[in-house]
Design a protein that fits this description.
Elements: E1 5-9, H1 22-34, E2 38-42, E3 48-49, E4 52-53, E5 59-62, E6 68-70, H2 72-82, H3 95-123, H4 127-141, H5 151-172, H6 189-205, H7 210-230, H8 238-242
Helix pairs in contact: 1-2, 1-6, 3-5, 3-6, 5-7, 6-7
Length: 245
């Protein structure tokens, strides 16, 4: 089947695949989990896409239907509605819960992970994207990204990250001890959201980092097992990201 969907992603230089952004990884996991063919095109993080103002990625363009959708959750909703024969990633009747889980995860885990990963994410960007990322984040936080986390606070913040992952794990234990996914035995968008945070850390911090090794050992290896299960959907169209618009 030929690719009819284009996924616009933010290329970086941290790893060979260039895919690093947790937001675009949520959309990528959605596409991969549904088994839909698609092509990746790199888009500079500059607020402009194809010559038009655009301030958020990911974006998909479905060339079959003509639809252009931004934001990972809306992309997942669109994919489930438009391609119902592929596995659902937002199971019927769980839309509100999936959305709520994703928002809480972003608030509880994502904001803390940004303190750890924000600066290494920024410095591995191409020049135009780096300038835009630096300028817009400084406007949001009121200080340069490099100054968001003092070295003396890093250990304390990282412990809070691990504790927050532990709390997420306790939520998942409501399905029964040993269940890997948020919904028990069935992977869903919520799992892609968790995996996106994990891939982000692995990509910009590296698998030899203290933080990565710590996370893989946390909660009796729960997140190592989770990452292993999600690995089957953790793949990238490497050639696509090399062509940047």
């Amino acid at each position: 089947m030929s690719s009819t969907i284009i996924l616009y992603d933010i290329p970086g230089n941290a790893v060979k695949t260039q895919a690093w952004s947790p937001n675009t990884w949520k959309a990528r996991f959605a596409l991969n989990m549904k088994g839909l063919p698609y092509k990746t095109i790199g888009a500079e993080h500059t607020g402009v896409l194809d010559g038009k103002p655009h301030y958020t990625l990911p974006v998909i363009h479905d060339t079959t239907t003509g639809a252009v959708i931004s934001e990972s959750y809306k992309i997942a909703q669109y994919l489930d509605k438009t391609y119902p024969s592929a596995p659902r990633i937002i199971p019927a009747g769980t839309d509100a819960l999936q959305r709520m889980f994703t928002e809480v995860l972003s608030s509880k885990v994502g904001k803390l992970v940004f303190l750890i990963c924000g600066y290494p994410s920024m410095v591995q960007l191409p020049p135009r994207s780096l300038e835009y990322f630096s300028r817009t984040r400084e406007a949001i936080f009121g200080k340069p990204v490099k100054e968001l986390l003092a070295d003396s606070e890093r250990g304390k913040v990282w412990k809070t990250v691990i504790d927050s992952f532990g709390e997420v794990g306790k939520w998942m234990d409501a399905n029964g001890k040993g269940k890997v996914f948020v919904m028990g035995d069935v992977p869903s968008f919520a799992d892609g959201a968790i995996a996106s945070q994990i891939v982000w850390m692995k990509t910009v911090l590296g698998m030899e980092s203290v933080e990565w090794k710590d996370l893989m050992m946390a909660d009796e290896g729960r997140w190592a097992k989770f990452a292993e299960e999600m690995n089957k959907w953790e793949f990238v169209d490497e050639e696509g990201l090399k062509s940047v618009v």
